[in-house]
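Anyone up for a design puzzle?
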């Protein structure tokens, strides 16, 4: 009997080793793809960030000179400020709007599925299309927004060409596009909260606000963490709306980090300098992600 059991264990171990071998065989193409198109470019970019490279000439090693020059570059420093400004305004507004809409759409409403679809549609719309739509809405001559302002007896605004209005105009477009995605995530989180929690809270006499603050929000902490981190990364990568709507203007008022990196790399052919800027962007995102995980960690 003992020999039979050992034979079975040996047979199971042989099967597991065989399965493990075939798993690695099937994973190899994907691992090679990730290595060639993710890790290799990252390593090359790190090397280029230490050089002067313009595609037209071979790289010339500079050491940390690019990183020193970055923080003396007023345009790049301003792009960091613009990006942080965008992040600081859009993130909380996106969270609040998404949560409110998700709570409403989680109720038993007529045409609930229809409204869920309508809210989510902007997220699957191309960023270039969204930028084109809002560029027309903001047009100073034929735009719909100025038409309504004039109809109300107010003066027209130069939404995308005013230093003070350009960034808020882009923020509105970004919110319109992305709130639906936040709503879907919060809906999934709300539907994962056991109903027993609310029943117990009602038995204890908890008001609607008390249920929200003591049951709903704590249970949604992992979802909120996911949204904050991904929203933050997306904000630092924002490019398409700025590129189409303002081209970084006026007076660099909407120049964000991703757009500034693009400009240096492909307009000015300063590939080494742009690579250094990319690593600064990576460092900022990594630091903020770490802080977010510490602040909103799921087991808190």
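Challenge accepted. My sequence:
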């Amino acid at each position: 009997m003992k020999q039979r059991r050992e034979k079975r264990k040996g047979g199971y171990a042989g099967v597991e080793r065989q399965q493990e071998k075939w798993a690695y065989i099937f994973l190899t193409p994907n691992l090679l793809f990730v290595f060639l198109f993710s890790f290799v470019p990252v390593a090359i970019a790190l090397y280029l960030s230490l050089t002067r490279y313009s595609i037209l000439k071979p790289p010339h090693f500079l050491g940390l000179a690019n990183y020193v020059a970055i923080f003396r570059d007023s345009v790049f420093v301003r792009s960091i400020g613009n990006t942080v400004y965008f992040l600081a305004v859009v993130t909380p507004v996106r969270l609040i709007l998404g949560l409110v809409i998700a709570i409403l759409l989680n109720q038993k409403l007529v045409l609930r599925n229809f409204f869920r679809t309508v809210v989510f549609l902007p997220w699957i719309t191309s960023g270039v299309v969204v930028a084109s739509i809002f560029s027309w809405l903001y047009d100073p001559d034929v735009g719909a927004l100025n038409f309504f302002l004039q109809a109300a007896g107010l003066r027209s605004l130069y939404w995308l060409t005013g230093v003070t209005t350009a960034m808020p105009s882009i923020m509105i477009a970004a919110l319109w596009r992305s709130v639906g995605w936040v709503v879907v995530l919060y809906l999934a989180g709300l539907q994962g909260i056991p109903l027993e929690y609310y029943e117990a809270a009602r038995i204890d006499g908890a008001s609607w606000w008390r249920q929200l603050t003591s049951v709903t929000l704590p249970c949604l902490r992992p979802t909120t963490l996911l949204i904050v981190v991904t929203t933050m990364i997306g904000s630092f990568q924002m490019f398409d709306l700025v590129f189409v709507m303002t081209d970084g203007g006026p007076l660099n008022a909407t120049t964000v980090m991703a757009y500034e990196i693009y400009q240096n790399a492909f307009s000015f052919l300063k590939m080494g300098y742009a690579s250094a800027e990319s690593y600064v962007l990576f460092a900022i995102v990594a630091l903020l992600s770490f802080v977010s995980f510490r602040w909103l960690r799921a087991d808190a």
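A detail worth pointing out: The chain has a mean pLDDT of 89.
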